[in-house]
Amino acid sequence: MTATYGAATVFDELPSGLLIGSDWVSGSSGGSYEHVYPASGRRNATIEIAGEVEIDRAVKSAWEAHGEWIAYTPERRRDLLFDLADAVKADVDRLARLNVHDFGVPIMMSAGHIGLAEKFIRYYAGYVDKAHGSSTPVSNKFDVNLIEREPYGVVGIIAPWNGPMVVVGLNVAPALAAGNAVVLKPSELSPFTSLRFGELCLEVGLPPGLVNVLPSGPEGGAALVRHRGISKIHFTGGGDTAKKIIAEAAANLTPVATELGGKSANIVFADADLDAAAKLSAFQGPLGQAGQSCACGSRILVQDSVYDAFIEKFLAVVQSVKIGEPFDPSVVVGPVVSQVAADRILETIDRASTEEMGELIAGGKRLGGDLADGFFIEPTVFTDVDNHSPLARIETFGPVVSIMRFTDEAQAVGIANDTVFGLNAYIQTNDLTRAHRVARQLEAGSVWVNRNSDISPQSPYGGYKQSGTGRAGGLEGLHEFQQVKNIRIGMS
Questions:
Q1: How far apart are CA 458 and CA 246, in angstroms?
Q2: What is the pLDDT at residue 132?
Q3: Active-site annotation holds for 13
Q4: ∠274-280-286 over CA atoms, to 5°?
Q5: Which of 104, 322, 323, 338 has the highest CB neighbour number within 10 Å of its CB?
Q6: Coil, strand or helix: which one is 166?
Q7: What are the pLDDT digits (tens) for 434-449?
Q8: pLDDT of residue 140
Q9: Sign (positive/negative) of CA torsion 410, 412, 413, 417?
Q10: What per-residue confidence (pLDDT) applies to 11?
Q11: Which segments in the chain show pLDDT lower than 50?
Q12: Same domain, yes or no, for 104 and 148?
C-alpha cells in the first residue's frame, strides 16, 4: 500500500494475517480490527484478531515445533539464531518503518528498537551451546548429583503496544535460546513489526510453529493465559492487566513473569551538570516516545538550591524539539497511541490543574493545525507537585512530568521510594560516593547515574514492588525461561 501522511509518503505493505506454523490465517474467530495510524487518526490497515480457536491451533503448532527444536544439536540452534539476528539487522529499514506504522514512534528513534532486538537475539544465540547445568557433592560422596536447566516447552509472551520489537529481544530471544517454542501475542494497536519478525523466523529456517504471532486484544490474551498447553506466561504491560492475567493463570497454576509500569524518580543534585541533567531529564521524561515508556522519569526531584536554574534549562530543551509527523527524520516527539490514550492523558492534565496538584508551566493541550487529526499532546510540565497527589502516584503514560523540590539526600531518597512502583530510578550527580550511596538506597530494579535507561543484553532489567517480578537480559533473563531439574545417580 502507499500511505501518505502529512509531508511523508511511505511505501509499505502492512501485514494483516495471523502467523500460525507456516500459515497466514485470515477469517479468524476473533474477527478483525481497524488499525489507526496515530499521527493522522486514519485507518491504515484492517488486521486479523486471534480468538480462542486460533490460540489453540497456535499452541498445538508450537508443541510440534518444540519437539523438533530440541532435537536439533545445540550448534544448529545457535547458528539459526545467529542467522535470525542477521536477518533482523538486514531488515532494519523495513522493520523501523513498520514500527512507525505500529504506534507512531518517530523514525529517528524507531531503528533503535530494531537494533536492540538484534543485539539481544545475537547475545542469547551465544548461550545456546554453553553449559548451563552444574554438579555438586552430596552427603553420599560417590553419588553423581546433577542440576540441569531445561526449557518449559511452550511459553506465551504478551507484548505491549509501545515496544513490540523490544519485547522480541528481551523475551522471545531468551525463550528460544532456552529451547522453548513461543506463542507471541502483540497488541492489536501495534501488530506489524511482530508479524514481520515471524516471517523472518520462517525465512531463516526456524521450524514452522516455533514462533507463532497472533495479534489480539484482551479476549485473545485471556485464551492464551488459560490454555493448558502453555507452560509459562511472560507479560509486559500495566499492573491492572497483570492482576487479571495472574488470576486467569491461577486456574492451571501457570507461572507468570511480569515487567510492569513505573513512576520513576529522577533525582537532580545541586552538584550535577545542570545542562546535561536538563537534557537527559527531558528526553527520559516527556520527549522520549512522548512519555509512553515504562522507563519514563516522570517524577523529577531537584535540590532546592538549583531548582529554578534547572527548570529554566529543562524548559529550554523541551520547547526546542520538533513535534510532528513521525516519518519526518527531524521530528523528536510524535503522537500518543490512540484517541483513548489522548483523552485519558488530557483528563489527567485537566484534573491536576483543577485540583491544584501542581503548577502547570508548559504544555497541557492537544495540538491543532496540521496535526489536529492526529493524537498529539504538548510536552507538559507541572512544578511544585505534591508527591502524594494522583499526578505523582499514578502512571500517566504520556508526555507529562512532575517536578518536585528536595532539601537533602535523605529527603530525596524518601520521596523517590514513596511509591508502589520500582522499575527505574535516575541520579544526576558528580559525587561518585553519593552516587553509590544513594543508588543502594533506592527501591528500583535499575538505577541509572548520569545517563538514560539504556537496556543492554548483558544486564538484567526488571522491577521492584508493583513494577514486576521477572528479569530480562543477562543470564537472569535466560533463566526466566528455564526450569531446574535435579538428577541424582546412586553410585554406592
A1: 28
A2: 79
A3: no
A4: 120
A5: 104
A6: helix
A7: 999 999 999 999 999 9
A8: 81
A9: positive
A10: 53
A11: 1-9
A12: yes
Q: Are residues 246 and 323 in the same domain?
A: no
Maximum distance among all Cα pairs of the chain, rounded to whole angstroms: 83
Cα gap 127→83, rounded to integer Å: 15
The string of pLDDT tens digits covering residues 229-272 is: 999 999 999 999 999 999 999 999 999 999 999 999 999 999 99
Q: Which among 48, 118, 188, 294 is annotated as catalytic?
A: 294
Do 482 and 335 share a domain, yes or no?
Answer: no
Residues with Cβ < 8 Å from 21, sequence gap 6 or more?
Answer: 58, 61, 64, 65, 208, 209, 212
Q: Say whether 254 sits in a helix, a strand or coil.
A: coil
255/271 same-domain check = no
In angstroms, the CA 118 to CA 226 distance is 31
Secondary structure (DSSP) of 80-145: HHHHHHHHHHHTHHHHHHHHHHHH---HHHHHHHHHHHHHHHHHHHTTTTS---EE---SSTTSEE
Nearest to 334 by CA among 294, 288, 373, 370: 288
Q: How many CB atoms lie within 10 A of CB 308?
A: 11
Q: What is the 3-state secondary structure (H, E, C) of 396-452?
A: CCCCEEEEEEECCHHHHHHHHHCCCCCCEEEEECCCHHHHHHHHHHCCCCEEEECCC
| Residue partners of 432: CB distance under 8 A and separation at least 6 | none
Q: Which pLDDT value is given to residue 7?
A: 41
- Taking the complete model, does pTM exceed 0.85, yes or no? yes
Euclidean distance between the first and final Cα of the chain, in Å?
71
Does the annotation mark 259 as catalytic? yes
**Residue 363 and residue 230 share a domain:** no
Contact status, residue 198 vs residue 184, Cβ threshold 8 Å: yes
Q: Are residues 385 and 417 in the same domain?
A: yes
Whether residue 212 is contained in a domain is answered as yes
**What is the extent of the structural domain holding 244?**
2-260+468-487
Looking at the 3D structure of the chain, how many domains does it have? 2
CA distance to 26, 199, 214, 339, per residue, from 23 (Å)? 10, 10, 12, 33
Mark whether 247 and 381 lie in a shared domain: no
The domain that holds 120 is classified in CATH as: 3.40.605.10
3-class DSSP string for 342-380: HHHHHHHHHHHHHCCCCEEEECCCECCHHHCCCCCECCE
Provide the residue type at 267 as one letter: I
Q: Which three cell numbers stand for residue 111?
A: 531503528
Residues 6+ positions from 122 with CB-CB distance below 8 Å: 81, 82, 85, 457
Determine which one of 118, 188, 248, 259 is catalytic.
Answer: 259
